[in-house]
Each structure stands twice: as C-alpha cells, then as structure tokens.
Amino acid sequence: MAWELTTWKPFRELTPFRDFDRMGMEMDRFWDSFFDIAPKGKTEEGGGWFPYLDVSETKSDIVVKAELPGIDPKDIDISLSDGMLILKGERKSEKEEKDEDYHLVERSYGTFYRSVRLPREVQSNKINASYKDGVLKITLPKTGETKKKEIKIKVE
Length: 156
Known about the structure:
It is flat, with a radius of gyration of 23 Å. The protein has one helix at residues 20-35; strands at 53-57, 61-67, 76-81, 84-91, 110-117, 128-132, 135-141. The protein contains one helix and seven strands, in the order H-E-E-E-E-E-E-E. By secondary structure, it is mostly beta strands. The protein has two domains: 10-39; 41-94 and 106-146, Immunoglobulin-like. The chain has a four-stranded antiparallel beta sheet with strand order 1-2-7-6, with no helix packed on it. A three-stranded antiparallel beta sheet has the order 3-4-5, with no helix packed on it. The longest helix has 16 residues, at 20-35.
C-alpha cells in the first residue's frame, strides 16, 4: 500500500465548491483577459511567446526596452506603422543533446510578435536601436509638435 502526501486545506470541506481554488484561478484569468491586463501568450499573428516591454518618455524621446535574452539581434525585426511599434523575431532552440533527459523546460522558443501603440508621434527617420545584455533599447525621438511645453502660471 502506497501513501500519498497532499497539502492539507482545512477550509476545503466548508466551501460549497469542491474545486474552489480552481474556480478562483479561472475567475482571475477571466477578469485579466476581460480587461486585457496581461498580454496573451499566443498572439493573433501566431507568435509562440512575447517579450516583456517597458515604455517610458523623456522630454525629447520615447524609450522602449524589451527583454530578449538569448536572441541574436539579426533575428529581430523592428517596424513602425501608424503609431504602432512592432517587434517580430525568433528565439531558436538550442541543439538537443542525445544524452540529456530534461526534467524541466521553462524557456520559450519560436517566433514572437509584440506591438505597442506609442503615446506620441515620433520622427521615424531618427529612430535608434541598441542591444546589450539581452535588452533591446529603442529610442524614438518625438516630433517638435508633440514635445511637452511648460506653461508658467502667473500669480497675482
């Protein structure tokens, strides 16, 4: 006879639903997708995963940073169309070792597609992109009309 260890949940018998934890997770997933809080793992464009982004703004630029570790910069396509910055590319899987048996694989491989609407118009001919330590940094200079203008308030 084999014994199995399980996590004891003292209030499980008191809940009207036997799968109360699962129901809570499903509700969280529903609300996240309803409000589109988190980007989806699979995109409409067929990408297999997505890089996480930071979008910030300075006085003269919009800066987008994307986490893309382990990707050759030659495998990344950056485009700008109608105020949308689009990143596409592929993380290629490593060669499989015949003598290895994997116990856990969490890294994602395959194509990715990520788009983000920019908060301001930018000068498309002056965009600069650099890649260092697995982070792609895209600097998009704002157009002259969209730079913030400070207005002083006269105090009487």
